Amino acid sequence: MVESYLDHGLIVLLVWFFSYSILAMIVFIFARRILLFPFQYWDKKRRSVYTRMLVNMVKYHKKPVKILHSRFMRVRNFMDKNVLESILIEKQDKSRNRHLKQLLTRIYEELGLVDWRVGQLKSLNSGKRKIAAYNLGSSLSKKAVKPLTEISLHDSNEDVRFVALKSLGKLEATDSLEKIIGLFKSFSYERCMVVADILIDFHYKALPLLCKYLNSPDSNTRFWCLRTLVEIDITVHLPFYEEMKSKIITLLNDQYYETRAFAAVCLAKLGEKNSSAKILKLLQNDQHPLVRSYAAGALGMLNTDSIIVGLVEAMKDKSWEVSYNASLALVNFGAEKVESALKIDPTCSFAEAWVRCKELAGGELDINDLE
User: What is the total count of domains within the chain?
Assistant: First the structure.
């Protein structure tokens, strides 16, 4: 009986405990809403007033500076700055009108929001530094380029540097390109891909510096500069073209296997047929299958008749990727040229590999002619 009484008491105690816990949570939620209501109301009203002012300013924007310095547009505190900034950035993002964007950026600068956020780039709080770097990029203000480059790109926190990088990309900061390339040294593989994408967006403006750092002592920098070059369509003859080509040829012997692989692809994209023999050596002698695979693909792009036999031999490679890419490359030459090369060298008759090449060629090649 004593045990049943204790069990019953324990159950009652647990029920009371959970009941009071749920009640306390309900009270907390309602109390929080009641306490925050005045602040939310003021924030909503402030947003409405500032939005209306900005709309009128944009509508009658002949004298924006006069309106900005009037008592109606005075920024009094931190909350005013936050609200105004969020409205301006939101309208920047939505607008497709270049003149409107310029006007909104000017308003952002005149209100002192750039100086406010630049000051926060030196904050002890890394979260505040990230927000400041992000919003400065969203403001599209060129005044933000120098502080983002000189302060944020050297920040001790990698996340802050990464946010600053993306902001400089938005601001099209060509003067910061050398500092952006310098991020290749310290960033992870995934973040280096973002750096490369931003450099690709700069297109020809980034080419001189990419060429300069192709012989950087840092292997990561060399590789990513080369990989970025591969993605840029170079359709004009550059004054430093010969220097760039010479550096890329040197990278065919780089100690880093991915750099050797992309060097072959880069030369192929540049249409350097004179480099076919050097790339063929990679295909025949390199120890890494990725390099041999990329070299086979590069030779297919160059389409030089003298390397057909080398590609046929590569179809025997123990790596499936190398064999497959060699098959694809051979298809680019057409049936006649490949058949002629195989007949000259009868030792290259191997049915199984050639069937795959025949299938890739759409059935044009007849294996019976090669026996």
Answer: 2
